[in-house]
Amino acid sequence: MHDSGASSRDLIVENESLRSRMTYLLEQAERNHEIMCRHQAFDLEIVGSDSFPNLIGTIFRSLPAICELDIVTLSLVDEESDIHTVMHKLGVNFGDFPNLLFVETDTDLGFVPSRNELFTGPPKPMLGPYHTAAHQAFFPNPPAGLQSIALVPLLRNKRLIGSLNLGSVDANRFTPGMGTDFVEHMASIIAICLENVISNEMLKYIGLTDSLTGVYNRRYIDRRLLEEIGRARRQAYRISCMYIDIDHFKHVNDSVGHQGGDEVLREVAIRIKAELRLSDALGRFGGEEFVVLLIDADADSAAMVAQRIRASVSGTIFTLSNGVEVPVSVSIGVATLDDFERDHAIEGVAQALVAHADSALYKAKDAGRNCVVSFE
After folding, report:
1. Sequence-separated (6 or more) residues with CB below 8 Å from residue 140
2. Looking at CB atoms within 10 Å, which of 46, 294, 317, 333 has the fewest?
3. CATH class of domain segment(s) 216-374
4. How far is it, in rounded angstroms, from Cα 222 to Cα 350?
5. Is this structure's pTM higher than 0.85?
6. pLDDT digit string (tens) for 250-264?
7. Which residue of the set 117, 288, 347, 376 is catalytic?
8. Where in the chain is the domain with CATH 3.30.450.40?
9. 35: pLDDT confidence band, cut at 50, 70 and 90?
10. What's the rounded Cα separation, in Å, for the pair 49 and 55?
11. Any idea which architecture 48-206 has in CATH?
12. Of 1, 158, 167, 7, whose CA–CA distance to 73 is shortest?
């Protein structure tokens, strides 16, 4: 005889099992949708990054939260230290990004090209357990208990530009047999954004530097002076300006030719820069004129630096590449911004400071050249 009660109980159990399974699937679908939305928001955020520090900051700030990771680092191939040098000159503070790493060549990343019978392809992500000896270079400050990692190549036009390094304290988070389509997609977007931002920053740097001497140009100094006056007003420190002119430069050009004159300009720039701090800024204003911004320097300090520069230039004769020796000297005018005239526009204050240094320079020339005069 058929037991209808048992059948009903079986149906109830089966329905509860199905309901539980549906609830789980719905929760998974909602979770996947939430993850997808977070990743789309991350993609939009990094695509919208308009500067190198903005992009790097977004990657380090958002990616660990979105992907539930314990550490994210980024290794960039920087063969001639061009990226590091330019970003530093554009004001990037690398101390803010301890997980940003630089390597000299793409082989330093340790990727092996994927192979099949027909061709050698681009490298694939490397997933597996964390080993200190093998992976310390990618995670110089690993979290306690780091267990599994993914090293994901960043590729642009089949060229390896770096790697995105992901780490977790969960030993099963990254395993060798795991599918990598998702992390490869994420890395491809990051690689595109990195290349675009670095290219734009390089162009910005080129637009702000003097191609002959490698120091900044007038456009940069004008912009930097406005920023520094605003900062000095807030933090109450002094700014000084030096206007430097190479004495009798026309005679130098006439005697050694324009190529020799260019060598003199480059060497003068090198000698000036050697007397400055990293916080100071040197720019060529065209011809044989240079302008220096001395940050947090009063009139006495600025005059001392100017005397050091004058002595450095005139104290050792210039030897050109063809062996010709040329005596060179400079005249320097110095002005200091003591009273910020807070009711005046920053632009006007900046122009007045440079004009005062220029006026002092003319007095130095009238005094016989190869000397320093401070604006009174």
Report:
1. 73, 98, 101
2. 317
3. alpha beta
4. 8
5. no
6. 999 999 999 999 999
7. 288
8. 48-206
9. low
10. 5
11. 2-Layer Sandwich (3.30)
12. 167
Kindly state the tokens that stand for 236. Answer: 């109450």
Range(s) of the chain covered by CATH 3.30.70.270: 216-374
Q: What is the DSSP string of 39-95?
A: HHHHHHHHHT--SHHHHHHHHHHHHHHHHT-SEEEEEEE-TTSHHHHHHHHTT--GG
Angle at 125 between CA 36 and CA 174, to 5 degrees: 65
List the structure tokens of 80. Answer: 């001639």
CA dist 78 and 105 (Å) reads 7
Burial class (CB in 10 A: 0-12, 13-18, 19+), 356: buried
- pLDDT tens per residue across span 319-363: 999 999 999 999 999 999 976 556 678 899 999 999 999 999 999
In sequence order, which ranges of 112-168 are alpha helices (DSSP H)?
A: 132-135
Beta bridge partners of 241: 293, 335
Which tokens in the block code for residue 197? Answer: 């931002």
Annotated active-site residue 288? The verdict is yes
